[in-house]
Sequence to fold (417 residues):
Amino acid sequence: MDNPVKPRILRHMKHDSDILIVGGGLNGPAQALALAQAGFTVTVIDALPRAAQQSDNFDGRAYALALASKRLLDRIGIWDHVAGNAQPMLDIKVSDGRAGEGPLSPFFLHFDHNELEEGPMGYMLEDRFLRRALADAMTAEPRITVMDGTKVVAQDTGPAGVTLHLDTGATLTGKLLIGADGRKSGTAERAGIKRSGWDYGQTALVCAISHELPNNGVAHQFFMPPGPLAILPLPGNMSSIVWSETHENAAAIHGLSDEDYMQVLRPRFGDFLGKIDLAGQRFTYPLNLTLADRFTAERLVLVGDAAHGMHPIAGQGLNAGLRDIGALTQVLSDAKQRGEDIASELVLDRYQEWRRFDTASLALSTDLTNKLFSNDNPLLRFARDLGMGAVNAMPGLRRGFMREAAGLTGDLPDLMR
Fold:
Protein backbone atom coordinates (compact mmCIF):
# COMPACT_ATOMS: atom_id res chain seq x y z
CA MET A 1 0.00 0.00 0.00
CA ASP A 2 1.33 3.47 -0.92
CA ASN A 3 2.48 5.67 1.92
CA PRO A 4 -0.34 8.24 2.36
CA VAL A 5 2.22 10.94 3.21
CA LYS A 6 3.78 10.92 -0.27
CA PRO A 7 0.98 12.62 -2.23
CA ARG A 8 0.69 15.27 0.48
CA ILE A 9 4.42 16.07 0.30
CA LEU A 10 4.36 16.28 -3.48
CA ARG A 11 1.28 18.47 -3.47
CA HIS A 12 2.94 21.12 -1.34
CA MET A 13 6.49 20.97 -2.70
CA LYS A 14 7.43 23.52 -5.32
CA HIS A 15 9.35 22.05 -8.29
CA ASP A 16 11.25 23.95 -10.97
CA SER A 17 9.52 21.74 -13.57
CA ASP A 18 7.29 18.71 -13.56
CA ILE A 19 9.94 16.73 -15.46
CA LEU A 20 13.71 17.08 -15.83
CA ILE A 21 15.37 15.61 -18.94
CA VAL A 22 19.13 15.06 -19.14
CA GLY A 23 20.33 14.94 -22.76
CA GLY A 24 19.84 17.40 -25.59
CA GLY A 25 20.63 15.30 -28.67
CA LEU A 26 17.53 14.07 -30.51
CA ASN A 27 15.57 11.91 -28.07
CA GLY A 28 15.67 14.44 -25.23
CA PRO A 29 14.17 17.32 -27.24
CA ALA A 30 11.58 15.06 -28.89
CA GLN A 31 10.55 13.77 -25.46
CA ALA A 32 10.34 17.31 -24.11
CA LEU A 33 8.08 18.45 -26.94
CA ALA A 34 5.78 15.45 -26.58
CA LEU A 35 5.45 16.00 -22.83
CA ALA A 36 4.93 19.75 -23.17
CA GLN A 37 2.06 19.12 -25.57
CA ALA A 38 0.59 16.80 -22.93
CA GLY A 39 0.60 19.72 -20.47
CA PHE A 40 3.78 19.05 -18.48
CA THR A 41 6.46 21.63 -17.74
CA VAL A 42 9.91 20.37 -18.72
CA THR A 43 13.54 21.41 -18.25
CA VAL A 44 16.14 19.98 -20.66
CA ILE A 45 19.77 19.93 -19.48
CA ASP A 46 22.30 19.57 -22.29
CA ALA A 47 26.03 19.25 -21.65
CA LEU A 48 26.83 20.73 -25.07
CA PRO A 49 26.31 24.41 -25.94
CA ARG A 50 23.53 24.86 -28.48
CA ALA A 51 25.99 26.27 -31.03
CA ALA A 52 27.92 22.98 -30.96
CA GLN A 53 24.73 21.09 -31.80
CA GLN A 54 23.58 23.35 -34.63
CA SER A 55 25.08 23.65 -38.10
CA ASP A 56 23.73 24.65 -41.48
CA ASN A 57 26.53 22.81 -43.26
CA PHE A 58 26.07 19.44 -44.90
CA ASP A 59 28.21 16.82 -43.13
CA GLY A 60 26.71 13.54 -44.38
CA ARG A 61 25.00 12.36 -41.18
CA ALA A 62 21.42 11.19 -41.77
CA TYR A 63 18.74 8.98 -40.24
CA ALA A 64 16.37 6.37 -41.63
CA LEU A 65 13.04 7.29 -40.06
CA ALA A 66 10.36 4.59 -40.14
CA LEU A 67 6.83 5.62 -41.12
CA ALA A 68 5.71 5.34 -37.48
CA SER A 69 8.51 7.73 -36.43
CA LYS A 70 7.44 10.20 -39.11
CA ARG A 71 3.93 10.11 -37.59
CA LEU A 72 5.30 10.96 -34.13
CA LEU A 73 7.35 13.85 -35.49
CA ASP A 74 4.22 15.08 -37.24
CA ARG A 75 2.19 14.90 -34.03
CA ILE A 76 4.76 16.91 -32.05
CA GLY A 77 4.87 19.61 -34.72
CA ILE A 78 8.26 18.84 -36.29
CA TRP A 79 7.51 17.15 -39.60
CA ASP A 80 6.21 20.23 -41.46
CA HIS A 81 9.56 21.92 -40.78
CA VAL A 82 11.67 19.08 -42.20
CA ALA A 83 9.44 17.44 -44.83
CA GLY A 84 10.90 19.48 -47.68
CA ASN A 85 14.36 18.04 -46.93
CA ALA A 86 13.25 14.42 -46.43
CA GLN A 87 13.68 11.67 -49.04
CA PRO A 88 10.97 8.97 -49.09
CA MET A 89 12.34 5.41 -49.13
CA LEU A 90 10.22 3.84 -51.83
CA ASP A 91 11.98 0.49 -52.23
CA ILE A 92 14.46 -1.55 -50.20
CA LYS A 93 16.71 -4.10 -51.90
CA VAL A 94 18.72 -6.63 -49.88
CA SER A 95 21.47 -8.85 -51.34
CA ASP A 96 24.40 -10.97 -50.20
CA GLY A 97 27.92 -11.06 -51.69
CA ARG A 98 31.55 -10.03 -51.47
CA ALA A 99 33.42 -6.77 -52.04
CA GLY A 100 34.24 -6.30 -55.72
CA GLU A 101 32.22 -9.35 -56.77
CA GLY A 102 28.68 -8.09 -56.24
CA PRO A 103 25.79 -10.40 -55.27
CA LEU A 104 26.79 -14.07 -55.32
CA SER A 105 23.27 -15.48 -55.35
CA PRO A 106 20.18 -15.06 -57.51
CA PHE A 107 18.14 -14.83 -54.31
CA PHE A 108 17.47 -11.39 -52.85
CA LEU A 109 14.79 -9.36 -51.10
CA HIS A 110 12.85 -6.51 -52.69
CA PHE A 111 10.41 -4.44 -50.63
CA ASP A 112 8.19 -2.21 -52.79
CA HIS A 113 6.29 0.59 -51.02
CA ASN A 114 3.32 0.08 -53.34
CA GLU A 115 2.50 -3.05 -51.33
CA LEU A 116 1.77 -0.88 -48.26
CA GLU A 117 -1.45 1.11 -48.32
CA GLU A 118 0.07 3.59 -45.81
CA GLY A 119 2.70 4.86 -48.27
CA PRO A 120 6.52 4.95 -48.09
CA MET A 121 8.10 2.64 -45.49
CA GLY A 122 10.17 5.51 -44.21
CA TYR A 123 12.19 8.64 -44.95
CA MET A 124 15.84 9.64 -44.95
CA LEU A 125 16.52 12.92 -43.17
CA GLU A 126 19.80 14.69 -42.51
CA ASP A 127 20.84 15.25 -38.91
CA ARG A 128 21.27 19.02 -39.39
CA PHE A 129 17.62 19.53 -40.37
CA LEU A 130 16.12 17.37 -37.63
CA ARG A 131 18.35 18.72 -34.87
CA ARG A 132 17.65 22.36 -35.76
CA ALA A 133 13.89 21.80 -36.04
CA LEU A 134 13.78 20.20 -32.59
CA ALA A 135 15.84 23.01 -31.04
CA ASP A 136 13.70 25.73 -32.63
CA ALA A 137 10.49 24.03 -31.49
CA MET A 138 11.74 23.84 -27.90
CA THR A 139 12.59 27.55 -27.97
CA ALA A 140 9.05 28.33 -29.14
CA GLU A 141 7.37 26.16 -26.47
CA PRO A 142 6.70 28.11 -23.23
CA ARG A 143 6.46 24.93 -21.14
CA ILE A 144 10.08 23.99 -21.98
CA THR A 145 13.22 25.47 -20.42
CA VAL A 146 16.57 24.58 -22.02
CA MET A 147 19.84 24.77 -20.09
CA ASP A 148 22.66 24.11 -22.55
CA GLY A 149 26.39 23.94 -21.85
CA THR A 150 25.50 22.60 -18.40
CA LYS A 151 26.48 19.27 -16.83
CA VAL A 152 24.77 17.27 -14.11
CA VAL A 153 27.29 16.28 -11.42
CA ALA A 154 24.95 14.55 -8.95
CA GLN A 155 21.31 13.54 -8.54
CA ASP A 156 19.16 12.79 -5.51
CA THR A 157 15.76 11.13 -5.50
CA GLY A 158 13.26 10.66 -2.72
CA PRO A 159 9.56 10.65 -1.90
CA ALA A 160 9.29 14.41 -2.50
CA GLY A 161 10.89 14.44 -5.94
CA VAL A 162 14.26 14.52 -7.68
CA THR A 163 17.06 17.08 -7.34
CA LEU A 164 19.84 17.62 -9.87
CA HIS A 165 23.11 19.28 -8.88
CA LEU A 166 24.72 21.15 -11.79
CA ASP A 167 28.33 22.07 -12.48
CA THR A 168 27.34 25.71 -12.11
CA GLY A 169 26.54 25.11 -8.44
CA ALA A 170 22.80 25.46 -9.06
CA THR A 171 20.18 22.83 -8.33
CA LEU A 172 16.99 21.85 -10.14
CA THR A 173 14.01 19.98 -8.75
CA GLY A 174 11.25 18.03 -10.43
CA LYS A 175 8.80 15.18 -9.96
CA LEU A 176 10.51 12.88 -12.48
CA LEU A 177 13.94 12.55 -14.07
CA ILE A 178 14.33 11.21 -17.64
CA GLY A 179 17.74 10.05 -18.83
CA ALA A 180 18.18 10.64 -22.57
CA ASP A 181 21.94 10.99 -22.37
CA GLY A 182 23.16 8.18 -24.60
CA ARG A 183 24.81 4.79 -24.30
CA LYS A 184 27.17 5.97 -21.56
CA SER A 185 24.32 7.54 -19.62
CA GLY A 186 25.49 9.32 -16.51
CA THR A 187 21.87 9.41 -15.35
CA ALA A 188 21.71 5.61 -15.37
CA GLU A 189 25.15 5.24 -13.80
CA ARG A 190 24.35 7.59 -10.93
CA ALA A 191 21.17 5.60 -10.28
CA GLY A 192 23.17 2.36 -10.06
CA ILE A 193 21.65 0.90 -13.25
CA LYS A 194 24.06 -1.56 -14.81
CA ARG A 195 24.27 -2.55 -18.48
CA SER A 196 24.61 -5.81 -20.37
CA GLY A 197 25.97 -6.33 -23.88
CA TRP A 198 28.99 -7.04 -26.02
CA ASP A 199 31.23 -5.60 -28.69
CA TYR A 200 30.66 -6.69 -32.30
CA GLY A 201 34.28 -6.34 -33.36
CA GLN A 202 32.99 -3.96 -36.02
CA THR A 203 33.18 -0.23 -36.66
CA ALA A 204 30.73 1.67 -38.84
CA LEU A 205 32.24 3.99 -41.44
CA VAL A 206 29.69 6.70 -42.19
CA CYS A 207 29.72 9.25 -45.00
CA ALA A 208 27.67 10.63 -47.86
CA ILE A 209 28.38 10.31 -51.56
CA SER A 210 27.24 12.06 -54.70
CA HIS A 211 26.49 9.98 -57.81
CA GLU A 212 25.77 10.51 -61.50
CA LEU A 213 22.44 8.69 -61.65
CA PRO A 214 19.32 9.26 -59.52
CA ASN A 215 18.72 6.91 -56.61
CA ASN A 216 14.94 6.88 -57.24
CA GLY A 217 14.31 6.58 -53.52
CA VAL A 218 15.74 3.04 -53.37
CA ALA A 219 17.66 1.88 -50.28
CA HIS A 220 20.18 -0.95 -50.65
CA GLN A 221 21.52 -3.30 -48.00
CA PHE A 222 24.48 -5.34 -49.24
CA PHE A 223 25.77 -8.00 -46.85
CA MET A 224 29.50 -8.77 -47.01
CA PRO A 225 31.60 -11.03 -44.72
CA PRO A 226 33.19 -8.17 -42.68
CA GLY A 227 29.80 -6.47 -42.22
CA PRO A 228 26.89 -4.86 -44.09
CA LEU A 229 26.98 -1.88 -46.44
CA ALA A 230 23.84 0.28 -46.42
CA ILE A 231 23.27 2.74 -49.28
CA LEU A 232 20.44 5.05 -48.24
CA PRO A 233 18.84 7.62 -50.56
CA LEU A 234 19.07 11.34 -49.86
CA PRO A 235 17.40 14.10 -51.92
CA GLY A 236 18.98 14.71 -55.30
CA ASN A 237 21.80 12.53 -56.57
CA MET A 238 23.09 11.85 -53.07
CA SER A 239 23.16 8.84 -50.76
CA SER A 240 24.15 8.16 -47.17
CA ILE A 241 26.59 5.30 -46.54
CA VAL A 242 26.80 3.15 -43.39
CA TRP A 243 29.57 0.63 -43.97
CA SER A 244 30.70 -1.89 -41.34
CA GLU A 245 34.21 -3.34 -41.19
CA THR A 246 36.34 -5.00 -38.53
CA HIS A 247 37.84 -2.52 -36.06
CA GLU A 248 41.30 -2.98 -37.59
CA ASN A 249 40.16 -2.56 -41.20
CA ALA A 250 37.94 0.41 -40.33
CA ALA A 251 40.78 2.23 -38.56
CA ALA A 252 43.07 1.70 -41.55
CA ILE A 253 40.42 2.80 -44.07
CA HIS A 254 39.41 5.85 -42.05
CA GLY A 255 43.04 6.91 -41.89
CA LEU A 256 43.32 7.08 -45.68
CA SER A 257 43.08 10.23 -47.76
CA ASP A 258 39.63 10.99 -49.21
CA GLU A 259 40.63 9.67 -52.64
CA ASP A 260 42.14 6.46 -51.28
CA TYR A 261 39.05 6.02 -49.07
CA MET A 262 36.88 6.17 -52.18
CA GLN A 263 39.13 3.68 -53.95
CA VAL A 264 38.28 1.19 -51.19
CA LEU A 265 34.56 2.02 -51.26
CA ARG A 266 34.01 1.97 -55.03
CA PRO A 267 34.37 -1.80 -55.60
CA ARG A 268 32.05 -2.44 -52.64
CA PHE A 269 29.54 0.09 -53.91
CA GLY A 270 29.54 -0.91 -57.59
CA ASP A 271 28.64 1.24 -60.58
CA PHE A 272 24.83 1.03 -60.60
CA LEU A 273 24.59 4.75 -59.79
CA GLY A 274 27.40 5.78 -62.13
CA LYS A 275 30.45 7.70 -60.97
CA ILE A 276 30.53 8.33 -57.20
CA ASP A 277 32.40 10.91 -55.13
CA LEU A 278 32.70 11.72 -51.45
CA ALA A 279 30.43 14.48 -50.15
CA GLY A 280 30.79 15.98 -46.69
CA GLN A 281 32.72 14.61 -43.74
CA ARG A 282 33.61 11.05 -42.73
CA PHE A 283 32.73 9.51 -39.37
CA THR A 284 33.34 6.23 -37.52
CA TYR A 285 31.31 4.61 -34.75
CA PRO A 286 32.33 1.43 -32.88
CA LEU A 287 29.43 -1.03 -32.89
CA ASN A 288 28.20 -2.81 -29.79
CA LEU A 289 25.06 -4.05 -28.13
CA THR A 290 24.21 -2.43 -24.81
CA LEU A 291 21.00 -2.83 -22.81
CA ALA A 292 20.24 -1.25 -19.45
CA ASP A 293 19.36 -3.99 -16.96
CA ARG A 294 16.29 -1.94 -16.10
CA PHE A 295 14.69 1.13 -17.64
CA THR A 296 13.48 2.67 -14.38
CA ALA A 297 14.62 3.50 -10.86
CA GLU A 298 13.15 5.67 -8.10
CA ARG A 299 11.58 8.69 -9.87
CA LEU A 300 13.77 7.98 -12.89
CA VAL A 301 13.25 6.52 -16.35
CA LEU A 302 15.53 5.94 -19.37
CA VAL A 303 14.73 6.47 -23.06
CA GLY A 304 16.62 6.01 -26.32
CA ASP A 305 20.27 4.96 -26.27
CA ALA A 306 20.39 5.47 -22.51
CA ALA A 307 18.11 2.43 -22.31
CA HIS A 308 19.26 0.43 -25.34
CA GLY A 309 21.90 0.62 -28.06
CA MET A 310 21.89 -1.83 -30.95
CA HIS A 311 23.58 -2.64 -34.25
CA PRO A 312 22.55 -0.23 -37.06
CA ILE A 313 21.94 -3.16 -39.43
CA ALA A 314 18.19 -2.48 -39.54
CA GLY A 315 18.42 1.30 -38.98
CA GLN A 316 16.23 1.05 -35.87
CA GLY A 317 18.26 2.93 -33.25
CA LEU A 318 16.51 6.32 -33.42
CA ASN A 319 13.20 4.67 -34.30
CA ALA A 320 13.33 2.58 -31.12
CA GLY A 321 14.07 5.72 -29.12
CA LEU A 322 11.10 7.56 -30.63
CA ARG A 323 8.87 4.60 -29.78
CA ASP A 324 10.10 4.91 -26.17
CA ILE A 325 9.09 8.56 -26.28
CA GLY A 326 5.61 7.78 -27.57
CA ALA A 327 5.09 5.09 -24.95
CA LEU A 328 6.37 7.14 -22.01
CA THR A 329 4.32 10.18 -23.02
CA GLN A 330 1.19 8.06 -23.15
CA VAL A 331 1.88 6.39 -19.79
CA LEU A 332 2.55 9.71 -18.04
CA SER A 333 -0.43 11.47 -19.66
CA ASP A 334 -2.78 8.69 -18.60
CA ALA A 335 -1.39 8.78 -15.06
CA LYS A 336 -1.85 12.54 -14.89
CA GLN A 337 -5.47 12.24 -15.99
CA ARG A 338 -6.09 9.66 -13.27
CA GLY A 339 -4.57 11.92 -10.62
CA GLU A 340 -1.67 9.53 -9.97
CA ASP A 341 1.85 10.48 -8.96
CA ILE A 342 3.48 10.37 -12.43
CA ALA A 343 6.79 9.19 -10.95
CA SER A 344 5.41 6.40 -8.77
CA GLU A 345 6.84 2.92 -9.18
CA LEU A 346 3.45 1.68 -10.34
CA VAL A 347 3.31 4.21 -13.19
CA LEU A 348 6.91 3.77 -14.31
CA ASP A 349 6.54 -0.02 -14.30
CA ARG A 350 3.87 0.36 -17.01
CA TYR A 351 6.44 1.99 -19.27
CA GLN A 352 9.09 -0.61 -18.52
CA GLU A 353 6.68 -3.50 -19.18
CA TRP A 354 5.66 -1.89 -22.47
CA ARG A 355 9.11 -1.18 -23.81
CA ARG A 356 11.69 -3.53 -22.28
CA PHE A 357 10.60 -6.77 -23.99
CA ASP A 358 10.14 -5.00 -27.34
CA THR A 359 13.58 -3.38 -27.30
CA ALA A 360 15.33 -6.54 -26.06
CA SER A 361 13.67 -8.55 -28.86
CA LEU A 362 14.68 -5.95 -31.46
CA ALA A 363 18.27 -5.81 -30.19
CA LEU A 364 18.62 -9.58 -30.24
CA SER A 365 17.08 -9.88 -33.72
CA THR A 366 19.55 -7.33 -35.12
CA ASP A 367 22.33 -9.18 -33.31
CA LEU A 368 21.29 -12.50 -34.86
CA THR A 369 20.98 -10.96 -38.34
CA ASN A 370 24.46 -9.47 -38.09
CA LYS A 371 25.98 -12.78 -36.97
CA LEU A 372 24.12 -14.71 -39.69
CA PHE A 373 25.25 -12.42 -42.51
CA SER A 374 28.67 -11.10 -41.38
CA ASN A 375 30.61 -14.22 -42.34
CA ASP A 376 31.64 -16.23 -45.38
CA ASN A 377 30.53 -19.66 -44.15
CA PRO A 378 29.18 -21.47 -47.26
CA LEU A 379 26.49 -23.35 -45.34
CA LEU A 380 25.22 -20.18 -43.67
CA ARG A 381 25.39 -18.32 -46.98
CA PHE A 382 23.29 -21.03 -48.63
CA ALA A 383 20.73 -20.98 -45.79
CA ARG A 384 20.37 -17.19 -45.65
CA ASP A 385 20.12 -16.85 -49.44
CA LEU A 386 17.40 -19.50 -49.56
CA GLY A 387 15.63 -17.66 -46.73
CA MET A 388 15.71 -14.34 -48.60
CA GLY A 389 14.44 -16.05 -51.74
CA ALA A 390 11.58 -17.67 -49.81
CA VAL A 391 10.49 -14.39 -48.19
CA ASN A 392 10.67 -12.60 -51.53
CA ALA A 393 8.46 -15.25 -53.16
CA MET A 394 5.71 -15.05 -50.50
CA PRO A 395 3.75 -11.76 -50.70
CA GLY A 396 2.11 -12.14 -47.28
CA LEU A 397 5.38 -12.81 -45.48
CA ARG A 398 7.16 -10.09 -47.44
CA ARG A 399 4.46 -7.58 -46.51
CA GLY A 400 4.86 -8.54 -42.85
CA PHE A 401 8.59 -7.74 -43.03
CA MET A 402 7.76 -4.42 -44.69
CA ARG A 403 5.30 -3.47 -41.95
CA GLU A 404 7.96 -4.34 -39.37
CA ALA A 405 10.49 -2.12 -41.16
CA ALA A 406 7.94 0.71 -41.27
CA GLY A 407 7.41 0.42 -37.50
CA LEU A 408 3.74 -0.46 -37.90
CA THR A 409 3.69 -3.71 -35.89
CA GLY A 410 3.36 -4.36 -32.18
CA ASP A 411 1.69 -2.23 -29.51
CA LEU A 412 2.06 1.24 -31.01
CA PRO A 413 1.80 4.37 -28.87
CA ASP A 414 -1.02 6.75 -29.82
CA LEU A 415 1.52 9.28 -31.17
CA MET A 416 2.56 6.72 -33.81
CA ARG A 417 -0.90 5.63 -34.91
Summary: Residues 1-12 have pLDDT under 50 and may be disordered.
